[in-house]
Design brief:
Layout lengths: L4 E9 L3 H6 L4 H7 L7 E7 L6 E8 L2 E13 L3 E8 L7 E10 L2 E11 L4 H19 L6 E8 L3 H9 L1 H4 L9 E2 L3 E2 L6 E7 L5 E12 L3 E7 L9 E10 L2 E9 L3 H10 L2 H20 L3 E7 L3 H9 L1 H4 L9 E7 L6 E8 L2 E13 L3 E9 L18 E10 L2 E10 L4 H9 L1 H21 L1
Antiparallel strand pairs: 1-7, 2-3, 3-4, 4-5, 5-6, 6-7, 8-15, 9-11, 10-11, 11-12, 12-13, 13-14, 14-15, 16-22, 17-18, 18-19, 19-20, 20-21, 21-22
Helix pairs in contact: 4-7
Length: 452
Protein backbone atom coordinates (compact mmCIF):
# COMPACT_ATOMS: atom_id res chain seq x y z
CA UNK A 1 0.00 0.00 0.00
CA UNK A 2 1.14 3.53 -0.71
CA UNK A 3 0.75 6.09 2.08
CA UNK A 4 1.16 9.53 0.57
CA UNK A 5 -2.38 10.89 0.80
CA UNK A 6 -3.49 13.85 2.90
CA UNK A 7 -6.96 14.60 4.23
CA UNK A 8 -8.28 17.69 6.02
CA UNK A 9 -11.25 17.86 8.41
CA UNK A 10 -12.58 21.14 9.81
CA UNK A 11 -14.91 21.70 12.75
CA UNK A 12 -16.27 24.70 14.63
CA UNK A 13 -16.82 24.59 18.38
CA UNK A 14 -18.88 26.93 20.54
CA UNK A 15 -16.21 26.87 23.25
CA UNK A 16 -13.02 28.83 23.99
CA UNK A 17 -10.03 27.74 21.96
CA UNK A 18 -8.05 27.00 25.15
CA UNK A 19 -10.70 24.52 26.35
CA UNK A 20 -10.74 22.66 23.06
CA UNK A 21 -6.93 22.56 22.87
CA UNK A 22 -6.51 21.31 26.45
CA UNK A 23 -8.94 18.42 25.84
CA UNK A 24 -6.27 16.88 23.56
CA UNK A 25 -3.65 16.68 26.32
CA UNK A 26 -5.63 15.70 29.42
CA UNK A 27 -5.70 11.94 30.08
CA UNK A 28 -9.11 11.95 31.74
CA UNK A 29 -10.60 14.00 28.90
CA UNK A 30 -9.01 11.85 26.16
CA UNK A 31 -10.56 8.68 27.54
CA UNK A 32 -14.00 10.19 27.06
CA UNK A 33 -13.67 10.98 23.37
CA UNK A 34 -10.46 10.08 21.47
CA UNK A 35 -10.87 6.76 19.61
CA UNK A 36 -13.85 5.94 21.87
CA UNK A 37 -16.61 3.79 20.33
CA UNK A 38 -20.18 3.39 21.66
CA UNK A 39 -19.74 -0.24 22.78
CA UNK A 40 -16.04 -0.22 23.60
CA UNK A 41 -14.41 -0.31 27.04
CA UNK A 42 -11.33 1.82 27.73
CA UNK A 43 -8.49 -0.23 29.26
CA UNK A 44 -5.59 2.22 29.09
CA UNK A 45 -5.24 5.99 28.66
CA UNK A 46 -1.75 7.40 29.20
CA UNK A 47 -0.53 10.90 28.30
CA UNK A 48 2.94 12.44 28.56
CA UNK A 49 2.12 15.98 27.38
CA UNK A 50 5.54 17.25 26.17
CA UNK A 51 7.41 17.30 22.89
CA UNK A 52 9.00 13.86 22.64
CA UNK A 53 6.33 12.43 24.95
CA UNK A 54 3.14 10.88 23.70
CA UNK A 55 -0.12 9.07 24.39
CA UNK A 56 -1.37 5.49 24.44
CA UNK A 57 -5.05 4.61 24.25
CA UNK A 58 -6.27 1.00 24.34
CA UNK A 59 -9.96 0.15 24.02
CA UNK A 60 -11.48 -3.32 24.26
CA UNK A 61 -13.94 -3.86 21.38
CA UNK A 62 -15.41 -7.30 21.90
CA UNK A 63 -12.57 -9.78 21.51
CA UNK A 64 -10.28 -7.20 19.89
CA UNK A 65 -7.95 -4.81 21.71
CA UNK A 66 -7.74 -1.60 19.65
CA UNK A 67 -4.38 0.10 20.34
CA UNK A 68 -3.65 3.71 19.32
CA UNK A 69 -0.55 5.72 20.12
CA UNK A 70 1.00 9.04 19.30
CA UNK A 71 4.35 10.83 19.75
CA UNK A 72 4.18 14.62 20.17
CA UNK A 73 6.20 16.61 17.61
CA UNK A 74 4.86 20.10 18.38
CA UNK A 75 2.81 21.56 21.26
CA UNK A 76 2.01 25.26 20.86
CA UNK A 77 -0.91 26.07 23.17
CA UNK A 78 -3.52 27.02 22.05
CA UNK A 79 -2.58 27.25 18.38
CA UNK A 80 -1.13 23.95 17.16
CA UNK A 81 -0.65 20.32 18.15
CA UNK A 82 1.23 17.81 15.98
CA UNK A 83 1.99 14.16 16.58
CA UNK A 84 3.09 11.03 14.78
CA UNK A 85 0.27 8.54 14.94
CA UNK A 86 0.25 4.76 14.89
CA UNK A 87 -2.13 1.85 15.40
CA UNK A 88 -1.26 -1.51 16.94
CA UNK A 89 2.09 -0.79 18.61
CA UNK A 90 5.13 1.49 18.69
CA UNK A 91 6.86 -0.34 15.85
CA UNK A 92 4.00 0.10 13.39
CA UNK A 93 4.42 2.57 10.50
CA UNK A 94 3.22 6.05 11.51
CA UNK A 95 1.34 8.90 9.90
CA UNK A 96 1.40 12.57 10.88
CA UNK A 97 -1.56 14.43 12.40
CA UNK A 98 -1.50 18.21 12.79
CA UNK A 99 -4.32 20.05 14.58
CA UNK A 100 -4.57 23.82 14.16
CA UNK A 101 -6.81 25.90 16.43
CA UNK A 102 -8.12 29.35 15.47
CA UNK A 103 -10.16 31.56 17.83
CA UNK A 104 -13.47 32.91 16.52
CA UNK A 105 -15.75 35.64 17.82
CA UNK A 106 -17.82 32.91 19.48
CA UNK A 107 -15.80 29.74 19.99
CA UNK A 108 -13.08 28.41 17.74
CA UNK A 109 -12.36 26.48 14.55
CA UNK A 110 -10.26 23.33 14.45
CA UNK A 111 -8.47 22.15 11.31
CA UNK A 112 -7.12 18.59 11.41
CA UNK A 113 -4.63 17.55 8.73
CA UNK A 114 -3.76 13.85 8.48
CA UNK A 115 -0.75 13.11 6.25
CA UNK A 116 0.30 9.69 4.99
CA UNK A 117 -3.16 8.10 4.87
CA UNK A 118 -3.12 4.80 2.99
CA UNK A 119 -4.54 4.92 -0.51
CA UNK A 120 -8.10 3.64 -0.53
CA UNK A 121 -8.64 4.46 3.15
CA UNK A 122 -9.15 8.21 2.84
CA UNK A 123 -12.93 8.19 3.16
CA UNK A 124 -12.98 5.68 6.00
CA UNK A 125 -10.32 7.65 7.87
CA UNK A 126 -12.19 10.93 7.37
CA UNK A 127 -15.38 9.36 8.75
CA UNK A 128 -13.43 8.20 11.78
CA UNK A 129 -12.13 11.70 12.50
CA UNK A 130 -15.61 13.17 12.04
CA UNK A 131 -16.96 10.77 14.69
CA UNK A 132 -14.02 11.56 16.99
CA UNK A 133 -14.61 15.31 16.69
CA UNK A 134 -18.30 14.76 17.43
CA UNK A 135 -17.20 13.00 20.64
CA UNK A 136 -14.84 15.88 21.42
CA UNK A 137 -17.63 18.42 21.01
CA UNK A 138 -19.81 16.56 23.49
CA UNK A 139 -16.94 16.07 25.91
CA UNK A 140 -15.81 19.70 26.09
CA UNK A 141 -19.13 21.33 26.86
CA UNK A 142 -22.65 20.73 28.08
CA UNK A 143 -23.89 19.61 24.68
CA UNK A 144 -25.57 16.42 25.87
CA UNK A 145 -28.30 18.39 27.65
CA UNK A 146 -28.68 20.87 24.78
CA UNK A 147 -29.02 18.39 21.93
CA UNK A 148 -31.59 16.19 20.22
CA UNK A 149 -30.13 13.21 18.35
CA UNK A 150 -32.26 11.04 16.07
CA UNK A 151 -30.98 8.26 13.81
CA UNK A 152 -32.51 6.06 11.14
CA UNK A 153 -31.07 3.49 8.74
CA UNK A 154 -32.07 3.20 5.09
CA UNK A 155 -31.61 0.36 2.60
CA UNK A 156 -29.89 2.64 0.11
CA UNK A 157 -26.30 3.75 -0.65
CA UNK A 158 -24.97 6.95 0.92
CA UNK A 159 -24.79 8.78 -2.40
CA UNK A 160 -28.52 8.28 -2.96
CA UNK A 161 -29.46 9.32 0.60
CA UNK A 162 -27.24 12.41 0.24
CA UNK A 163 -29.00 13.22 -3.04
CA UNK A 164 -32.40 12.99 -1.35
CA UNK A 165 -31.26 15.45 1.34
CA UNK A 166 -29.41 17.99 -0.80
CA UNK A 167 -31.51 18.18 -3.97
CA UNK A 168 -34.11 20.95 -3.48
CA UNK A 169 -36.83 19.12 -5.44
CA UNK A 170 -36.42 16.02 -3.25
CA UNK A 171 -35.99 17.97 0.00
CA UNK A 172 -39.36 19.69 -0.47
CA UNK A 173 -41.17 16.35 -0.66
CA UNK A 174 -40.11 14.98 2.72
CA UNK A 175 -38.83 17.72 5.03
CA UNK A 176 -41.03 18.20 8.08
CA UNK A 177 -43.36 16.08 10.22
CA UNK A 178 -46.56 14.44 8.99
CA UNK A 179 -49.21 16.98 8.01
CA UNK A 180 -46.74 19.63 6.83
CA UNK A 181 -45.98 20.63 3.26
CA UNK A 182 -42.69 22.30 2.35
CA UNK A 183 -41.85 24.63 -0.51
CA UNK A 184 -38.83 24.04 -2.72
CA UNK A 185 -35.75 25.66 -1.13
CA UNK A 186 -34.31 28.71 -2.86
CA UNK A 187 -30.62 29.50 -2.58
CA UNK A 188 -27.22 27.83 -2.93
CA UNK A 189 -25.78 24.73 -1.28
CA UNK A 190 -22.27 26.01 -0.56
CA UNK A 191 -20.22 27.09 2.45
CA UNK A 192 -21.87 30.25 3.87
CA UNK A 193 -24.62 29.83 1.28
CA UNK A 194 -28.24 29.56 2.36
CA UNK A 195 -31.57 27.91 1.59
CA UNK A 196 -34.91 29.57 2.26
CA UNK A 197 -38.19 27.68 2.31
CA UNK A 198 -41.59 27.68 3.99
CA UNK A 199 -43.23 24.90 5.96
CA UNK A 200 -47.05 24.98 6.01
CA UNK A 201 -49.10 23.07 8.57
CA UNK A 202 -52.52 21.50 8.07
CA UNK A 203 -54.25 24.74 9.16
CA UNK A 204 -52.38 26.79 6.56
CA UNK A 205 -50.01 28.51 8.99
CA UNK A 206 -46.73 29.36 7.25
CA UNK A 207 -43.38 28.92 9.04
CA UNK A 208 -40.42 30.53 7.20
CA UNK A 209 -37.09 28.71 7.45
CA UNK A 210 -33.53 29.69 6.60
CA UNK A 211 -30.48 27.42 6.59
CA UNK A 212 -26.91 28.74 6.44
CA UNK A 213 -24.42 26.02 5.51
CA UNK A 214 -21.23 25.71 7.58
CA UNK A 215 -19.86 22.30 6.53
CA UNK A 216 -20.46 20.28 3.36
CA UNK A 217 -18.68 16.96 2.90
CA UNK A 218 -20.52 15.14 0.09
CA UNK A 219 -22.02 11.79 1.09
CA UNK A 220 -20.69 12.15 4.66
CA UNK A 221 -21.59 15.30 6.58
CA UNK A 222 -23.75 18.42 6.38
CA UNK A 223 -23.79 21.16 9.04
CA UNK A 224 -25.89 24.31 9.05
CA UNK A 225 -27.44 26.99 11.23
CA UNK A 226 -31.24 26.79 11.25
CA UNK A 227 -33.38 29.85 11.84
CA UNK A 228 -36.46 31.73 10.68
CA UNK A 229 -36.72 33.46 7.35
CA UNK A 230 -35.34 36.79 8.61
CA UNK A 231 -31.57 36.88 8.07
CA UNK A 232 -31.20 39.78 10.52
CA UNK A 233 -32.10 37.58 13.50
CA UNK A 234 -29.89 35.00 15.18
CA UNK A 235 -30.30 31.36 14.23
CA UNK A 236 -32.37 29.15 16.54
CA UNK A 237 -30.16 26.06 16.59
CA UNK A 238 -27.35 24.22 14.82
CA UNK A 239 -27.88 21.04 12.81
CA UNK A 240 -25.32 18.36 11.98
CA UNK A 241 -26.33 15.51 9.68
CA UNK A 242 -23.99 12.56 9.21
CA UNK A 243 -24.25 9.80 6.61
CA UNK A 244 -22.46 6.54 7.49
CA UNK A 245 -22.30 3.09 5.94
CA UNK A 246 -24.59 0.60 7.67
CA UNK A 247 -24.03 -2.78 6.05
CA UNK A 248 -25.29 -2.36 2.49
CA UNK A 249 -27.31 0.69 3.51
CA UNK A 250 -26.87 4.07 5.17
CA UNK A 251 -27.36 5.33 8.71
CA UNK A 252 -28.37 8.97 8.98
CA UNK A 253 -27.88 10.75 12.31
CA UNK A 254 -29.65 14.08 12.73
CA UNK A 255 -28.24 16.17 15.58
CA UNK A 256 -29.82 19.47 16.60
CA UNK A 257 -27.90 21.62 19.09
CA UNK A 258 -29.74 24.41 20.91
CA UNK A 259 -28.29 27.50 22.64
CA UNK A 260 -29.21 26.18 26.10
CA UNK A 261 -31.09 23.41 27.86
CA UNK A 262 -34.22 25.54 28.27
CA UNK A 263 -34.48 26.10 24.52
CA UNK A 264 -34.04 22.39 23.87
CA UNK A 265 -36.63 21.42 26.49
CA UNK A 266 -39.13 23.94 25.11
CA UNK A 267 -39.21 22.45 21.61
CA UNK A 268 -39.37 18.92 23.03
CA UNK A 269 -42.23 19.65 25.43
CA UNK A 270 -44.25 22.20 23.43
CA UNK A 271 -43.56 21.40 19.78
CA UNK A 272 -42.93 17.66 19.92
CA UNK A 273 -39.50 18.00 18.33
CA UNK A 274 -38.36 14.43 18.95
CA UNK A 275 -41.44 12.81 17.42
CA UNK A 276 -41.37 15.42 14.64
CA UNK A 277 -37.78 14.49 13.85
CA UNK A 278 -38.63 10.80 13.74
CA UNK A 279 -41.53 11.46 11.38
CA UNK A 280 -39.28 13.60 9.18
CA UNK A 281 -36.69 10.84 8.78
CA UNK A 282 -39.50 8.36 8.15
CA UNK A 283 -40.73 10.59 5.31
CA UNK A 284 -37.15 10.80 4.02
CA UNK A 285 -37.18 7.00 3.80
CA UNK A 286 -40.35 7.12 1.72
CA UNK A 287 -38.76 9.59 -0.67
CA UNK A 288 -35.66 7.40 -0.93
CA UNK A 289 -37.88 4.43 -1.80
CA UNK A 290 -39.50 6.45 -4.59
CA UNK A 291 -36.10 7.55 -5.93
CA UNK A 292 -34.83 3.97 -5.89
CA UNK A 293 -37.89 2.60 -7.65
CA UNK A 294 -40.51 4.43 -9.67
CA UNK A 295 -43.82 3.67 -7.97
CA UNK A 296 -46.69 1.89 -9.65
CA UNK A 297 -49.41 4.56 -9.86
CA UNK A 298 -53.07 3.66 -10.19
CA UNK A 299 -55.80 6.30 -10.45
CA UNK A 300 -59.55 5.68 -10.39
CA UNK A 301 -62.58 7.96 -10.17
CA UNK A 302 -65.59 6.89 -8.10
CA UNK A 303 -69.06 8.42 -8.08
CA UNK A 304 -69.29 8.29 -4.27
CA UNK A 305 -68.40 11.22 -1.96
CA UNK A 306 -64.90 11.39 -0.55
CA UNK A 307 -65.87 10.71 3.08
CA UNK A 308 -67.59 7.47 2.07
CA UNK A 309 -64.70 6.35 -0.13
CA UNK A 310 -62.23 7.04 2.69
CA UNK A 311 -64.43 4.99 5.04
CA UNK A 312 -64.44 2.14 2.51
CA UNK A 313 -60.61 2.06 2.77
CA UNK A 314 -60.49 2.19 6.55
CA UNK A 315 -63.55 0.57 8.19
CA UNK A 316 -63.50 -3.23 8.57
CA UNK A 317 -67.19 -3.60 7.76
CA UNK A 318 -66.49 -2.06 4.33
CA UNK A 319 -63.07 -3.63 3.73
CA UNK A 320 -64.54 -7.11 4.18
CA UNK A 321 -66.55 -6.59 0.96
CA UNK A 322 -63.79 -5.59 -1.46
CA UNK A 323 -60.20 -5.54 -0.12
CA UNK A 324 -57.63 -7.77 -1.81
CA UNK A 325 -57.48 -9.35 -5.28
CA UNK A 326 -60.75 -9.78 -7.16
CA UNK A 327 -62.28 -13.11 -6.18
CA UNK A 328 -60.76 -13.36 -2.69
CA UNK A 329 -62.60 -13.48 0.62
CA UNK A 330 -61.46 -11.35 3.55
CA UNK A 331 -61.65 -13.07 6.94
CA UNK A 332 -61.88 -11.31 10.32
CA UNK A 333 -60.64 -7.84 9.36
CA UNK A 334 -59.75 -5.59 12.31
CA UNK A 335 -58.36 -2.11 12.07
CA UNK A 336 -56.68 0.25 14.53
CA UNK A 337 -56.81 3.41 12.42
CA UNK A 338 -54.03 5.60 13.82
CA UNK A 339 -50.35 6.26 13.27
CA UNK A 340 -48.58 3.07 14.36
CA UNK A 341 -51.87 1.12 14.36
CA UNK A 342 -52.42 -2.03 12.31
CA UNK A 343 -55.01 -3.40 9.93
CA UNK A 344 -54.88 -7.20 10.10
CA UNK A 345 -56.89 -9.75 8.16
CA UNK A 346 -57.04 -13.24 6.75
CA UNK A 347 -57.60 -13.86 3.03
CA UNK A 348 -58.91 -16.93 1.23
CA UNK A 349 -57.79 -16.94 -2.39
CA UNK A 350 -57.40 -19.73 -4.91
CA UNK A 351 -58.06 -22.38 -2.28
CA UNK A 352 -55.29 -21.07 0.00
CA UNK A 353 -55.45 -19.19 3.29
CA UNK A 354 -53.09 -16.22 3.72
CA UNK A 355 -52.69 -13.42 6.23
CA UNK A 356 -51.67 -9.80 5.85
CA UNK A 357 -51.34 -6.54 7.71
CA UNK A 358 -50.79 -2.83 7.26
CA UNK A 359 -48.89 -0.59 9.65
CA UNK A 360 -50.08 3.01 9.40
CA UNK A 361 -47.51 5.78 9.06
CA UNK A 362 -49.98 8.57 8.33
CA UNK A 363 -53.75 8.84 8.70
CA UNK A 364 -55.24 12.15 7.51
CA UNK A 365 -59.02 11.75 6.99
CA UNK A 366 -60.35 12.07 4.38
CA UNK A 367 -57.29 13.06 2.37
CA UNK A 368 -54.41 10.66 2.74
CA UNK A 369 -53.21 7.28 3.99
CA UNK A 370 -49.62 6.05 4.15
CA UNK A 371 -48.83 2.55 5.36
CA UNK A 372 -46.51 -0.43 5.11
CA UNK A 373 -48.19 -3.61 3.96
CA UNK A 374 -46.92 -7.18 4.03
CA UNK A 375 -47.84 -10.84 4.16
CA UNK A 376 -47.67 -12.38 7.65
CA UNK A 377 -48.02 -15.64 9.46
CA UNK A 378 -51.11 -16.19 11.60
CA UNK A 379 -49.42 -14.42 14.54
CA UNK A 380 -48.77 -11.29 12.46
CA UNK A 381 -45.04 -11.74 11.83
CA UNK A 382 -43.85 -10.63 8.35
CA UNK A 383 -43.12 -13.45 5.90
CA UNK A 384 -42.14 -13.61 2.20
CA UNK A 385 -44.87 -13.67 -0.43
CA UNK A 386 -46.41 -17.18 -0.30
CA UNK A 387 -46.07 -17.57 -4.05
CA UNK A 388 -43.02 -15.43 -4.93
CA UNK A 389 -39.93 -15.65 -2.73
CA UNK A 390 -38.28 -12.61 -4.38
CA UNK A 391 -41.29 -10.35 -3.93
CA UNK A 392 -40.49 -7.42 -1.57
CA UNK A 393 -41.30 -8.37 2.02
CA UNK A 394 -42.56 -4.85 2.72
CA UNK A 395 -44.38 -2.47 0.41
CA UNK A 396 -44.96 1.25 0.90
CA UNK A 397 -48.49 2.34 -0.01
CA UNK A 398 -49.64 5.95 -0.33
CA UNK A 399 -53.32 6.60 -1.11
CA UNK A 400 -54.60 10.07 -1.96
CA UNK A 401 -58.28 11.07 -1.98
CA UNK A 402 -59.52 14.21 -3.76
CA UNK A 403 -62.87 15.64 -4.80
CA UNK A 404 -63.69 15.41 -8.51
CA UNK A 405 -67.08 16.99 -9.19
CA UNK A 406 -69.51 15.14 -6.93
CA UNK A 407 -67.26 12.09 -6.81
CA UNK A 408 -63.80 11.10 -5.60
CA UNK A 409 -60.48 10.45 -7.31
CA UNK A 410 -58.29 7.84 -5.64
CA UNK A 411 -54.58 7.67 -6.47
CA UNK A 412 -52.47 4.78 -5.21
CA UNK A 413 -48.65 4.87 -5.22
CA UNK A 414 -47.06 1.48 -4.58
CA UNK A 415 -43.35 0.83 -4.22
CA UNK A 416 -40.97 -1.60 -2.45
CA UNK A 417 -39.72 -0.60 1.00
CA UNK A 418 -36.22 -1.51 2.27
CA UNK A 419 -35.93 -3.95 -0.65
CA UNK A 420 -32.82 -5.59 -2.07
CA UNK A 421 -31.87 -5.65 -5.75
CA UNK A 422 -33.59 -8.98 -6.47
CA UNK A 423 -36.83 -7.79 -4.85
CA UNK A 424 -36.79 -4.52 -6.81
CA UNK A 425 -36.20 -6.46 -10.04
CA UNK A 426 -39.19 -8.72 -9.29
CA UNK A 427 -41.32 -5.65 -8.61
CA UNK A 428 -40.32 -4.09 -11.95
CA UNK A 429 -41.04 -7.31 -13.84
CA UNK A 430 -44.58 -7.45 -12.47
CA UNK A 431 -45.80 -3.88 -13.04
CA UNK A 432 -48.49 -4.94 -15.51
CA UNK A 433 -49.81 -7.54 -13.08
CA UNK A 434 -49.98 -4.98 -10.26
CA UNK A 435 -52.00 -2.59 -12.41
CA UNK A 436 -54.33 -5.43 -13.30
CA UNK A 437 -54.66 -6.49 -9.65
CA UNK A 438 -55.52 -3.03 -8.36
CA UNK A 439 -57.94 -2.47 -11.26
CA UNK A 440 -59.77 -5.69 -10.35
CA UNK A 441 -60.03 -4.64 -6.71
CA UNK A 442 -61.37 -1.23 -7.73
CA UNK A 443 -64.04 -2.86 -9.89
CA UNK A 444 -65.29 -4.69 -6.81
CA UNK A 445 -65.10 -1.50 -4.73
CA UNK A 446 -67.04 0.46 -7.33
CA UNK A 447 -69.84 -2.11 -7.32
CA UNK A 448 -69.89 -2.19 -3.53
CA UNK A 449 -70.09 1.62 -3.23
CA UNK A 450 -73.03 1.61 -5.63
CA UNK A 451 -74.84 -0.88 -3.39
CA UNK A 452 -74.66 1.09 -0.14
Amino acid sequence: MTSNNTLVVKRRFAYPVESVFDAWLDAKALGAWLFKTPDGKMEKVEVDARVGGGFKINERRGEVLAEHWGRYIEIDRPRRLAFDFGVGGDSEPTTRVTVDFAPLEAGCELTLTHEGVWAGYEERTAQGWVMILDNLSRSVGDEAEREIVISRSFAAPRALVWEAWTTPEHFAQWMGPRGFTTTKPVGQLKIEGSWRYDMVDADGTVYPNRLVFREITPNSRLAYDHGGGDETTAHDFEVIVTFADDGDGTKVTLRSLFPNKAARDFVVENIGAIEGGRQTLERLGEKIAHIQQEPVVITRDFTAPRALVFDAFTKPEHLAHWWGPKGCKIINPRNDLKRGGEFRYGMEFGGAMMHGKQIYREVTPPNRLVFENMFTDEAGNPIPHPGAADWPVKMLTTILFEDVGKGTRVTVLWTPLDANAAERATFDANRAGMNQGWSGSFEVLEAYLASI
